[in-house]
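hey m, so remember when u said the tokens were messed up on ur end? i reran from scratch. heres the input so u can diff it against urs
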Amino acid sequence: MKVLFVNCIAASVLLLSVPTTVFAADVFIGAEASAKKDDAASENVVRSKEMKRWSIGTNALQWLNFGTPNLALGVAVGRHFSLELGGRYNSWKFKTKKTPIWNQQQTGWLGFRYWPWYVYSGFWLGLKAQYSGISTTGIWRPALETGQGVGAGLSLGYTFMLSSYCNLELGMGAWGGRYLKYTLYGCPECMDIREQGPRWFGTLDDISLSFHFLF
């Protein structure tokens, strides 16, 4: 009789443990499927980016800088590196009631970027060589500043993937070097020379809110 009672209790415990075991197995299988789905999504993003080797973009903030047209062309040279060739050009002059104002420039650069995660995605660090010819007056002071400079720049930023074909980029940087020719005039009208000759310089550069098309 005691043996029969013990066997009945053991059978009951076994039956009660079956649903728990099945539930645990379902949870494990569901978690594994979800992980595989996430891995597949990440792999699809990577494959999508692998197919896009080239990029072409423009900085919206430069268009707000007295309507400065600008363009940058990039090419991926591996998973973590890209080369970039770009330029900006502005020849516009404006006149207010008090003083003329303009921010003319002819700028060109060649550089590369390092992407820790994947090219055209996430954080990046950039290094470039740059030439810039400038003529500016009336923005901060009435003096006219002209020059032709060469140097190097360092920048960093983050790129958001809006789609497989379009990115939004935020970044900033600085560049410095030497003005091969430099002249500071008291004003555009009087043209009295205050400073003249080669000089070293350093300034902020590449403050960007850019849109890039990938192909």
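this time it looks ok to me. Helices lie at 2-50, 60-64. if urs says something different then somethings off w ur setup not the seq
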